[in-house]
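Below is how a single chain appears once it has passed through the pipeline. First comes the sequence as given, then the structure the pipeline wrote out for it. We keep one example in the README because the format questions we get most often are answered faster by looking than by reading.
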Amino acid sequence: MHRFYVDKDQIQGDTIQIVGSDVNHIRNVLRMKPDDELIICNGQGKDYYCIIRKMSDGKITVQKLKEQETGTELKTKITLFQGLPNKDKMELIIQKAVELGVYDIVPVITKRVIVKLEDRKKEMKKLERWQAIAENAAKQSGRGVIPKIHTVKTFTEALGLCGQLDLGLIPYENAQGIGYTKDIMNSLKNYPTVGVFIGPEGGFEEFEIIEAKENKIEPITLGKRILRTETAGLAVLSMMMLSLEEE
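Resulting structure:
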């Protein structure tokens, strides 16, 4: 069954209004008609099974038949603090992180970040594109939540945000053995919220690791091999997903 997302202000009792580009997709691409059924997601973990009642050029009205939890979200909310990578790697990271269940993503400027976002307008354009990628990835993977892409933060600001979470982790090549990482992964269900820091190309400076530890963020190893920035986040998120996924 086809699935679409709406904002909460489009839901009024048992009636939901579909507007924007989805109207054209439903009418002219999928060629759906009144009495056809579809799934509407509120982007906050709830699905509505609906039937189309009215269609016009700018709006489609559907009626809720039943509602239920989406059932595809991890119980622990994971925030990815991603050091800004070069070129278009961030787009791949966002897409795959959303597929793996991340709750939100915070782009971070660290010491070794090469990318410069000095123009506010260019930054906002990037954020709009990144958010669209997150939404498309959420649709494709059947997510009940569209992860939020935050505005770019400094490393210190990111540490402050992570300090509000229940657990903070920072993969680092000089961290202690993989056994400790396994223990952390096995304990994730005890933490409602977890933050994970990933460095840009070149990784973290030593003083950044020290600062992270001072903020109670745990260094962990991802193994004996050095992973690229676009690989490291996906590796740790895959480990976390395996630990947190339920039957």
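The chain is about 35% helix and 25% strand.

See the next section for the split statistics.
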